[in-house]
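Ex. 9. Protein: Mortality factor 4-like protein 1 isoform X3.
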Amino acid sequence: MVSSKDDSATDSDNSSGDVPDSKPSVYTEGEKVLAYHGPRIYEAKVQKAELRKNEWRYFVHYLGWNKNWDEWVGTDRLMKHTEDNVLKQQALDKKQGMEKNTKSGRSAQAKPKSSADVKLDKEDTKSNVPKGKKRKADSGTEKGNVSAEKLVKIQIPSTLKKQLVDDWEFITQQNKLVKLPRSPTVDDILTKYLEYRSKKDGMMTDSVGEILNGIRCYFDKALPVILLYKKERQQYHEAVSDNVSPSSVYGAEHLLRLFVKLPELLAYVKIEEETLIRLQQKLLDFLKFLQKNQGTFFLSAYDGPKASEGSGNDKES
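Predicted structure tokens for Mortality factor 4-like protein 1 isoform X3:
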């Protein structure tokens, strides 16, 4: 599991409180439940329950996991914590080849990647699917096609994980935004890294340049689809026109979000094992470069709400 927060880029923004209580909640706050996360079922606890657009949403904490994995889910992802459902959980784990970890519903470090990156599917990894349909559209198909073994393992440094959490907090909880255009931009950061590697290695290998071009390409394509929170969409349309690349407008805050999504995105690319290992090392080196320059590249505070529609009673479409 990774701190992508399933609904972080979809409906983690609150739109509750204004909808008539037309149907009772199936689960209560504080209730222990079983939650589907990717191809498996985990023990979880309901932290919050909110009625959104006439549909109940639940903020769950996966027992035994860091709170960075907490996320909003729908009733289709939850089951009552009954003996029958626990047996179903164990049977599903066996089917997934996880016999060693059937008791706890959680596992060693290798397992989070399978479930964590599946979380990326929950957003719109495939395409601009209508908001209400993306979970069901993706949940059954992508999970079956991508195995844990094929996922690129990207270990995000702890200080950058905190940066991701702070980023989520600023935008979804405090109604703030990253002021655009950013300086340095994603393009600037990639150029600085290229210069850094050139000085460190005494020369520049083509592979590093190719990887940086790949990061830029993934960022530009992924940003409007899976890297934005709801409250940032209007800002995106105002800041990025048809002939402008997001990498020339956005900065480190949004670039870091890409690294949460990359394992799942890269899983659909055929990469030989030896190449995959080298790629993981280079991506990790780039993350360490971001960490080393965290104070320079990242904002310490975001802009407060201006005349944005994301503040006050968040009635976002």
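Check your answer against this statement. The chain has a mean pLDDT of 75.
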